[in-house]
Amino acid sequence: MTTPPTLGLVLAGGLARRMGGGDKVRIAIGGTTILQRVLACLEPQCSRVIINANGDATRFADTGLPVVADSVPDFAGPLAGILAGLDWAAANAPALEWLLSVPGDCPFLPQDLVERLQAARVAANTPLACARSGAWRHPVVGLWPVRLRENLRHALSEENLHKIELWTARHGIAIAEWPDVPVDPFFNVNTPEDAARAAALAARQRGVRSL
Hints:
Blueprint: E1 6-11, E2 28-29, E3 32-33, H1 34-42, E4 48-52, E5 67-68, H2 78-92, E6 98-103, H3 113-124, E7 128-133, E8 136-145, H4 149-157, H5 164-171, E9 173-178, H6 192-210
Helix pairs in contact: 2-4
């Protein structure tokens, strides 16, 4: 199938409490920051890429990418970041009808996210799709139609609904599957221990590629 043009959204608006604060996307894994790894994955798959982050947007000026903050106050969670991305798409890239969201703390994202999420959505005849690896579902790694943004805004602002899976269940969501071995492509870095494990996994991957 032909993959429709898609906007990539890196969700970097979290508070990183378990890392002691700061931007997790700037953690270096194998000499490359998680953000650099995520952008290297998304840019070939997406027509454009933006970052969702709250606070001082100039801290991401080195990327040259648009930075959008949540429009819903008080760090309302990933759905608020997704809504910010959908609003940006509607205002700045109206030709793009789809948004791919990924968390900014996953250093091993797959290169076929858009293609496989779209294929799963089409096969299931649903407007939404998200990823699963092994037994774990990853609702933040998802494909979202821009046309549902006002429905999402109402859910967040009027219903105070913040759990992704409650909202997506209303509309229908397909699941795209990835294996979780030898490396889970959606391994995320939440703690210093996770960062150390990711560095070990990255070193192992380099060793395999060099054989």
